[in-house]
Design goal:
This protein has 464 residues and is α/β, with parallel strands linked by helices. The strands form 4 sheets. It has a 5-stranded antiparallel β-sheet with strand order 2-1-5-4-3. It has a 5-stranded parallel β-sheet with strand order 13-12-14-15-16, with helices on both faces. It folds into 4 domains: 86 residues, 2-Layer Sandwich (Beta-Lactamase), CATH 3.30.450; 80 residues; 120 residues, Heat Shock Protein 90, CATH 3.30.565; 116 residues, 3-Layer(aba) Sandwich (Rossmann fold), CATH 3.40.50.2300. The termini are far apart.
Amino acid sequence: MERFENQRWTSQEVARLIAVFESERRFFDEIVTTLPVPLVTVNAGGAILSANQAFLKQFRVNREELERKSLAVVFGDAPWRAALMPYEPGVVTVEDYRAVFTPVPRWDRGETEWTVAFLTQPTPEAPPAAAPAADTEWIANAAAIEATQRLAGRVTHEVNNLIMIAAGYGRELLAQLPADSPLREDIAMMLGATGRIETMAAQLNEYSRSGRGDLASHALRDLLPASGYRLGPVPNEAIVRTDRAALTAVFQALPLIAEGALTLESTIIAGEAFITVKGFGMSAESLRQQFEVLNKASREGRTGAPEAAMVGPKLLQAGVRWRVADPAALELRIPLAGTAPGPARRTVLIVDDQAGIRAIVRRILEARNFQVCDAGSGEEALSLLDRQKDAIDLLVTDMRMPGMTGRDLADRVRFRHPNARVLFISGFTDDPGVQSGVLPDHTSFLAKPFNPDQMGDAVAKLME
């Protein structure tokens, strides 16, 4: 109570608050850096102050040259300076881009900066054939779900840390305040809000965790009896490849959001089983919103909302492409057995300051069908990841290296690729985690020296 009245804060408390703000700033900086949309921050003269990776790549600008560049590198002689208006967004269209200028007042310096987002202009073209248009839409839908899952994993990680800090401080303050303090009610409301955020974070965590499915062959006509659905007459020879459990979970969730009885139609088109689910009793846009994580119904705690939000990840896990059609219907495409693509070649990043070690590990893993890239230091590895398009499935790193340690590198790689496994290799075993045998999930340790079989066994176990 005395601390609130006199505004006295200990240096330790101030340091903790600064750490919270710094963690949040780094988190959002990381999101901006990796966004696929080119973004820059400029001053009133159009000089570039900062840019994300997408801008550097798209407009072929080196980060070292950035401070000497202005928006003329993109617009040339186009009248872009008129868009630098201090109180409202401006727009400039040039060639393939529509650039949106958003003013951002800097209260700390009394100046205005502008964030410029370069949005790709659609190219007019003749109407495509029906089948290719559908393919493009459905593939993009699956990619959007994967991207959302990765973002949900990152947000959950950071939010859980902040919840622990906010709830811990709140409970500590509540315990210290006298029973008649008017602040007790305020802190109780804050803790209640923290509890609601914790519930939403748990939903995000569940959303982000659906991974690769257990695909197997099933007769289409017998696929969903456990869910009480009948597909009607379908060819006896129609065998599909999917994760039956994940697909069943979807069909068990659908009636929870439908306003009427659902009906199914099925047919075989170009090597796929095409299933249409009708009878939702709502507009196509409302149905799309039902499948969004943390939608309005989910925030209000309505029955079936969390299950509906899991439809996208579960269908992705089942190897099923899907979309919402208009009028409101859920369309599914399940590959027939024999037409499903083989397992994707997984990517491994090897980091060790000894070139000979990297070469040995590369041979071992390439022989096991991994796509391999390598780096001689943690800093070099992060620079490589900035240019790497594919997701990293496995990081193999030495624990002790000049500069960045293997543990620090693993944390940064996991931040960018949350599903990556980590195999630490080292001739030193004095690390507390190694000695105790307690390492983070999806992490293992292999002592040097090792032979190819030992490396292969360690990787195979880690990737299970």
